[in-house]
Every structure is written in structure tokens, then in C-alpha cells.
Amino acid sequence: MRDLYEVLGVDRQANASDLKKAYYRLAKQYHPDHNPNDKEAEDKFKEASNAYQILSDDDQRARYDRFGFDGIRGAAQNGSGFSSVEDIFSAFGDLFGDFFGGRSSGRRQPRGADLRVDLGLSFAEAVWGTTKDVKVTRDVACATCNATGARPGSKPDRCTTCQGKGQVVHAQGFFMVQTTCPACRGAGKVVKDPCEDCRGRGAVAETSTLAVTVPAGVDDGQTLRLAGKGEAVANGSPGHLYVVLHVQGDERFRRDGEDVVTELPVSFVKAALGGEVEVYTLDENCTGTATIDLKAGSQPGDVVVRRGQGIPRVGEQGRGDHHVLLRVEIPKKLTARQEELMRELATELGEGVREKRGLFGRKKS
Length: 365
Fold this sequence. Notes:
Elements: H1 4-8, H2 16-30, H3 39-55, H4 58-67, H5 73-76, H6 85-91, H7 93-100, E1 115-121, H8 123-128, E2 130-141, E3 157-158, E4 167-172, E5 175-180, E6 189-190, E7 203-214, E8 223-226, E9 241-247, E10 254-256, E11 259-267, H9 268-273, E12 275-280, H10 283-286, E13 289-294, E14 303-306, E15 322-329, H11 336-349
Helix pairs in contact: 2-3
């Protein structure tokens, strides 16, 4: 995949106006109405639209700038990105109205409202992925009228205000301005004999349970998009459902992008002499353990890196690394024998240490 800034032909400091101008230039060049039956132009049109969609959103742009495609790929696993030209016109209808005065092929199809739900995940679920059920109350297509809004046996009439185009043009000074038709609200049709169940809306409210597939490697705050799972609208396409992820922390692991950090307490004796220690790992749904061989003379703050044992890369092969940070612990209390051995070691090393005091605070003779 090409860098999104490269796709639009702008640098990383580009502001919102720069992005819009760059997208306008590319959209005009590769617009399907200007390049009929040109698959290459359509692909470039989609590529530019996907790039603009991400970079024009402050949150998605910030994640992309920090993590690259990994920061936004969780959404891609659940329908993010434009799969068709119509999806692009649905999302950027107002923008294309500004650019081209609407599509030459006719009115823009109305789209239902987008919805948002919040989904909580455990640390292990975020690392390894899961499928979770979410309850959503939304408008769905009315089965009685087949989403037309008209009473069964009848059908909507063409709007006489806009002649079925869904938009009207009026003069504003020296300019001709195209706006959504106020009579049909962009539908191009009006319902004179409404359906009794949906009262002409073409949709009815329904609470349903949806299964959300969460890909492995997602992070707190990322958003998944379920295309077409938002509100339904008469004579149009449904909106999208955005699932915002909230990941619980785990005291054993600290995430740093695709890497994970574990602080491992180690006795000063084992740090000095070396030996084997056990550490928690992400394996077995974050319940696994592994044995690490410490080198003699390990120091506080030393890091042992377990390559390829970190967080899975979203939508790709491979994982980050597991960094084991050594935290050498010094005992606060020693037995008499331990203190004796330590003093012998201090003498051997030529270390000056505090002398042992008697019961009443006097130095022992």
C-alpha cells in the first residue's frame, strides 16, 4: 500500500485545505463520469478517496502518523475503506456537489445515519482477537413496504419539485448553487399513501444483537467500521456502525505499539550469579510462561528481548517483540547468617560498609 500522503501528493504538514485541494484535483482527474469504463482510473479514484477519508479525520490521521497503516488497519478488517464508487459518492456527496455540481448520472442516493457503540475488551481479547456481541437500536428497512415507505400495492411518486433528481439549483448572486431538494429531502420521490407500519419512513426501529469480529492486535481507542450496519433510510443505502474499542489494562504487561514490556523482579544474587527465571508471556491467551536464562552480572534496567513474541500486527503476518525489563531487588532485612556472609563478601571486595552495632547502638568490639 502506498503512503497516504504520497497518494494525495501532499507533505505531512498539509492542512485541511491542502488535503481538500489535493483530493479535488485527483477526484476531478479520475472521476468515473470523466473516465467511463476505465478500471485503472476507477481504482485511482478509490485510492485517493480512501486516503482523503483517513487524513481528513483528525483522529485517524493522528493514528496513521504515529503507527502507519497498523494504526488504522483494525477498522479495515471490519469494512473500512470504499469498496465501490457509489460508497464514495454516498460519503462525500456534499463535497462532490461542491466540486462537480453533483453527478452527471443523476441524483445522489440518500444514506442513513451512522451509529456508534462502545465495546469493552480484556487485554487478552485485544491481543488475540475475539468475536463479541453488541446490542444496537437502529432503524432497519420496513418489511411491510420493502423500505419504500409506501402502502403495499402503491409506490412513491416522483418529486415534482426536483423532477426526481433529489437536488435543486437556484441562483445566488452570480453563481448557481445546487442544494438538497426541500420537498423530498434528496430522495427524489415523495410518498402520498404511506405505509401504516413505518408511517412513510421506509424504516422501523429495532433492537438487535450484532456479532463484531475484533482482529488480533487492536489497541485501546481504535475504531472498527461495520459498513451498512447503521440506520436504514427509505429509497437509499444504510449508514455505517462505528465500534469504539476500550481495552482494559493488564498489570503484567505494558503495551508500546506492537511491542509489550514486562517488568521482572530479580534477586540481587541471581542478577550477580546468573540463572533461570520465569516470565509471563502473551501465549495461551496471555496466561503462558517462559524461562529466561539470565547472564551473570545482569544489571538493574537491563532488557532481555524475546523477538517476535509481542503483539500481533493487525491484518498482517508477524508480531512485535516482548521486552523483559529487569528490576533487581535488594532485601530490606537479612538473617544473621545472611548478614555475616554479606560482610565477608564486602571484605573480599574491599568495600567499606557500615559496622554492625550492638543492642544499645554501640559498635560491637
